[in-house]
Amino acid sequence: MKLQPDKSDAQSLTAHGPGWVAINNEKVEGSVVVGSRGERFEWNCSRFDQLGPEHFAQLASLGAELVIFGSGSRIRFPQPAWLQPLMARRTGVETMDTPAACRTYNILAGEGRHVIAALLVEPPER
């Protein structure tokens, strides 16, 4: 029996660096939401302190089984009240720094899971 790796049609996060991530080798400068079923849009925030409940309500409307929140260059947790719309839909939320969120998204998307990565991409420090 010959074993072949499964091929996923999901978008993948192919690289990251200070102030950017790459989606299918396309460099994106700024915060972004990426999903395993083709979801992709700009996430209107560039710093953690700009986040609010409306950002997470937007994620809840996507109907994913899991949201991976990449909190920037270091791990920072959203306020529990912001997560209420996700909890009401029984959507899981995992928080990690953005590089770890990229890696985790790729693994789960490759497994065929309906996963969303909400990535805070902060401008590089000068």
From TrEMBL:
Q: Which domain of life is it from?
A: Bacteria
Q: Matching Gene3D superfamilies, A to Z?
A: MTH938-like
In terms of SUPFAM superfamilies, this protein maps to:
MTH938-like (SSF64076)
Under the heading InterPro entries, the entry gives: MTH938-like_sf (IPR036748), NDUFAF3/AAMDC (IPR007523)
Which Pfam families does this one have? Answer: DUF498
Please state what the protein is called.
Mth938-like domain-containing protein
Q: To which species is this protein native?
A: Variovorax beijingensis
Lineage runs: Bacteria, Pseudomonadati, Pseudomonadota, Betaproteobacteria, Burkholderiales
